[in-house]
Write a structure and sequence with these properties.
Shape: globular
Oligomer: single chain
Structural class: alpha/beta
Strand content: 5-15%
Mean pLDDT: 93
Order of helices and strands: EHHHHHEHEHEHEHE
Largest sheet: 6 strands, parallel
Length: 210
């Protein structure tokens, strides 16, 4: 075993939740009479909530504040995450296998705690993790390695002994930059970057079956 800790993204990696965000984005923009930008969901998926809100304001020239947009997104997502979002195939089995091998488990997500905690509890995996972190706890989103270094430090495991599972190119790139073992995870919203992810990552999977 060449790693001592496994760090997981949530949306599109452990959680089958990306369609939830597409619905929220469509509803959010439709409410304002705005068209759905074809790359919008993909553009914001590696950003923190604050960065995504700021990007949305600038892209659509909205006369709104970052906190107000984040509050609206959280309100729209809270029920879905607490009741409807389920695990990706074979996720539970893989986490159990890692626990049996005494691998430390962590979450590094762009979701705020009020969304991810009830979802992980509802799916019976919250207590499996040794460390949980949101990009809200660091300075920058996953296009920078801040969150991965923060988690590594919190686990007490060197970056070189951590494996990271991510579905988006910027996050795979930043984790690799700090010496972590990286695995790309297929997600339809990032499929257009699959070749680039494969070129950077140490491996690529469609699910956790193997």
């Amino acid at each position: 075993m060449n790693f001592e800790a496994a760090i997981f993204d949530l949306d599109g990696t452990l959680l089958n939740s990306m369609d939830v965000w597409e619905k929220i984005d469509i509803a959010f923009l439709s409410k304002r009479g705005l068209p759905v930008h074809p790359d919008y969901v993909m553009d914001i998926c590696a950003l923190s909530f604050e960065e995504a809100a700021q990007y949305t304001i600038e892209l659509f020239e909205l006369n709104e504040t970052v906190p107000d947009i984040i509050e609206e997104w959280n309100a729209m997502a809270a029920y879905e995450y607490a009741h409807h979002v389920r695990l990706m195939p074979y996720t539970y089995e893989y986490l159990l296998r890692l626990k049996a091998l005494h691998i430390k488990l962590a979450v590094a997500t762009g979701l705020p705690e009020e969304l991810y905690k009830p979802c992980l509890i509802n799916n019976g995996i919250y207590n499996m993790f040794d460390f949980l972190c949101s990009t809200e706890q660091v300075q920058r989103g996953k296009e920078y390695p801040d969150i991965f270094l923060f988690v590594s430090n919190g686990l007490g495991v060197s970056p070189q002994k951590c494996i990271v599972f991510e579905d988006v190119l910027p996050a795979v790139r930043s984790a690799k930059q700090v010496g972590m073992i990286t695995y790309g995870v297929y997600d339809k919203y990032s499929a257009h970057n699959e070749e680039k992810i494969r070129a950077i990552a140490d491996g690529y999977i469609h699910d956790f079956r193997n």
